[in-house]
Amino acid sequence: MMKTKHGFVAGWLGLAASLLALPVAHSAAGAKEAPLIAILQSNAPAAEKAIPCKQLAIYGSAAAVPALAPLLQDAELASWARIALEAIPGPTADEALREALEKVDGRLLIGVINSIGVRRDPRAVTGLIPRLKHADAGVVAAAAAALGRIGGEPATRALLQSLAGAPAAVKAEIALGCIFCAEHYLGEGKPTEAAEIYDTVRLADVPTRRILEATRGAILARGDAGLPLLLEQLRSTEKDLFGIGLRTARELPGEAVTRALEAEMNRS
Question: What is the mean pLDDT of residues 232-248?
């Protein structure tokens, strides 16, 4: 009993010490942040601003965003600024990236979109959707990936609508965005919605690797109900489909799968 009591008290003391240390840690981070911001706002050459950007990924807060945001338009420093903005918590960094969508183009735009995807900002969806029709295939690919990472109904709908008429150069990327959305639904406990997306992709005119990824997803999303589709792959004369059937069979749990595979072996 005494051991338990002492352990309980020790635990509370440790927690209290940790909580008391939080303001000190915050103050220390702020002390390191201020001079880094000052360098970014100075006339120092770009080479001297790169490392401060990187360090702001560790010590930066919303206070650093006004100094970082203009650098998203700087060809030399944009990627460094994005490292910090991707890591800084809170909506201020998200807002800076959303605003940059309208200010940059080309590789800088692709970079901004990639960072939005990393942060999975749902408020950026309306700004990303028009980029699915951008003339630059790289921008389209980045937008599709970001929308897929963000997920949700608006992003999913836009990607599925784009899939059918997408140019060949970007079909694989848009299909991948759709697959990411399906994975979101699966993770949210919505296998029916996920299976519908996987089916749309696997039956579309997309590169083989996307068909295989979507076929695997369609089987797993259905669980035992995916057995007919699994067996269809195992009976396929196409090597790739047969292979994805074998790999997916190892991932699909349950006695029903085992019995079906045994029956399939006997059938052969």
Answer: 94
